[in-house]
Design a protein that fits this description.
The protein is mainly alpha-helical. It is built from 4 helices and 4 strands, in the order H-H-E-E-H-E-E-H.
Amino acid sequence: VNCRKMESEVWTDPAVKAEINGDFVLLQLYVDDKTPLPDSLQYTSKFDGSRIKRLGDKNADFEIVHFNRNSQPYYVFLDQQGKMLSTKGYSAQEGYDPSRFLSFLKKAKAEYGKRSQ
């Protein structure tokens, strides 16, 4: 529900939409995806030892292991080496304010610019 609210109230803002479409590669991890993983792709989580059997579980485990978070939505901005462009991501706790999210996008873009020089 929170992800859909972010998509409908923030991503549709013309300035946010233009920034995302113009300067970012958007990837989404769906943690509620019930698609079973083939046996060959199932594994035991290094975080909590649970057996990861579904795509959504794999995505949630990825978020926990790599970003130490398990909240949705949670947005992180990465450079081409997979390193975060800020010390923390953007979550629903930050609010559904397009101008605030746009500021977060612009800070990530500026940091990316610094790293790629």
